[in-house]
From TrEMBL:
Record lineage: Bacteria, Bacillati, Actinomycetota, Actinomycetes, Jiangellales
Similarity comment: family membership: Belongs to the ABC-4 integral membrane protein family. LolC/E subfamily.
Gene Ontology cellular-component terms listed: plasma membrane protein complex
Pfam family, one: FtsX
Membrane topology category: Multi-pass membrane protein
Chain ranges passing through the membrane: 253-275, 308-328, 348-368, 431-452, 658-683, 704-729, 749-770
Subcellular compartments: Cell membrane
UniProt domain ABC3 transporter permease C-terminal: residue ranges: 661-770
Name of the protein in its database record: ABC transporter permease
Amino acid sequence: MTAAWLRVDLLRRWRSLLVLALLVAFAAAAVLTAVAGARRGDSAADRLDAVTLPATVEVRPEDPAFDWNAVRDLPGVEAVALAAPTTWAIDGPGAGGEAFESPADGELLRSVERAVVLDGRLPDPARPDEAVVTPSFVDQHGLGVGDTVTLRLPAAGAVETRIVGVIRSPLLSDSPQQPGRLLPSAGLFAAHPEDFAGPGGVELSGLVRLAPGWTEQAFLTDLAAATGRSDIIVWPHAASMAYVRRIAGIESAALLAFAGAAGLAAVALVGQALARYAAATAADLRVVAALGLTPAQAHRTAAAAPGLAAAAGALLGVVAAGIASRWFPYGFAAYVEPDPGADLDLVVLGSGLVLIPALAVAGALLTARRVWSDAAGAGRAGPARRPGAASRRSAVVALASRYGLPVPVVVGARYALESSRGPAAVPVRPALAGAAVGVLGILAAATFSAAVSDATTNPARYGQVHDLEAPLGVDGAETVPAGDVLAAAAADPDVVAVNDSRVAVAIAAGESVAVFSLDSVAGRFDPVVLEGRLPERGGEIALAPYTAEALGAGPGDRIELAGTRDRRELMVTGLTFLPESEENYYAVGAWVTAAGYDDLFTGYGVRVAHLVLRAGADPVAVADRLSGVLPAAGDGGAAVRQRLERDSSPELLQLQRLPLFLAGFLGVLAVGAVGHALASAVHRRRHDFAVLRAVGMTRPQCRGVVLTQSSVVAVAGLLIGLPLGVALGRTVWRYVADATMVHYVPPDVTLLLLLAVPVTVLVANLLAVWPSQRAVAPRVGPVLRAE
């Protein structure tokens, strides 16, 4: 029986089944692509580490005479690759200059940072004219394998270099909105050593790969013991990859949320279409019941065609998801994906191929069973039972009736809030849930987007509260008369605060910590405090969040620091940000008082005056004015410059997009659910409308019923979605701010709230325009005679 009916159904309603299959395919492709992309992105960094030999730390002694054998001989050190700094410029497309480090031996790209070759090959270490580039370099400059680029070095001048490969490794990965990288062979350093030498010689840095299980803390302790120095700068590259993993994890979670929203939209929209098809088939099969068709046979027959359409749609969705995988992973994870291109996640695609038809068949069986049982119950109850009667009276409708509100308002509120069963049932709960989820998702995404926009345009969110800086000294020696510079800056009418920042490196629990002195010589210099407070006495310290995380310390804990003068135990008073420079990031380091600094160190590595200007002051004008009056230092004078504008926002801009996509899907869900409820109410309650028309309700009043229904659904969605949406948006922003080390400030959503109410009601009423026209279109007599 099932096979025979299915053949008839395919011939009779193949267009409807084709539409159902395409709807399932679209929903399946969206869900499966997002889930597979999330899994791929979440594992990208780990898979890159597994096929490379990533550097654990970078050692920067800033000493041309440094003995690198002392590092190579340390326990736990498996390999050391040396690099030399210089600057270069290129001719041709995308010409420009950039600082970079060139391999100084043959270890880089082989025993350390063994790169994944995406195209071409690695450079020959003996050839000075070969180089490799990262994918972003190819995109930005239009130069790839086989092309020649002219490098212009400070002393050697033009050097023709041929690109032999496109590579990727943990350290040599691109970042969003950052320039691509070119890495020459070690032969360039061997051929032109003069281009890598500073005033005292070549200051090499060393990329160190530690043995598995060997900690950075143990390495730093051994390094200090072997060299007799505690001020060596050590950059933790392994920790940088941990940050990339954290961002990729957030992106993967957002993709999973997107998949969940797409799944909800599929259940609400595609699921309803499949259910309506199964219900119509079950109703048709009632005629065949007189020939001996059992309820179980009817249920299976009603579910056969929707199941077949779902299976075909699932297969198409799997194919589409496989094709779309070439554009994943998304965001930060794309820059560390070791095997870009198409990738078939057999677990996700296979599960979708099985689960989607199974869910469709299960839903069709339930729908057919309900329709069959409702029809049987209606037959037993006789004509006194009216299908579609409300199963529960709404308190809102009861109040509307009690206070004598107009009939269109009462009827519209009943259609919006009172659920029922039977042929005249209106999908009340899906409409209310869709409206609430839509408002919630859009408000949450808008709140999060507003927070990201604020963070990416406000340097204070990254702790950069100063506007100008004036270098005062290096390696313990003043490059300008520091006292005169500080006094001149403090006397400027546009300067409201000046901090004398001395910076030196200390060791705490095996971690290298850049320690800044908090020493306001004018006004009050107030770094951004994330938690707790700034240090006020010599025995106190405030840590940057990354340093606190690395040390496992927080406000109230005590840590021991070893400086160049003494070893001291300090109490952590808070978490704070630091001024950025070429040598440090805002989330790394610590603040101590001037007295605390003197207890720990003799001299300094760097000394800088950080200047805060009054609101509205022009930083360029103030910098020019101060540079003209400050004491001279050699030929160049005491330069006052604007703060370092390092772009710390690419990861936030990447994360900002996914919630907007999610909001779009939830908006589609809301529009579909509300629009379907309005259309269903007009179609299934046409008898009610005909009766109301017959007893005197006018056409405008009939339209008012539908408009009231849509407005009530919109208001219900607003009552639920507005507070939850803002709360969810702020909660997600707090999580992202903590993960990306941004100062959390609740975004101002006043304008969003003011716009949300009229926009939501307007959209709901626009959805009601067409159903309200249909409500008054049929003639009363034919409808009543048909009933």
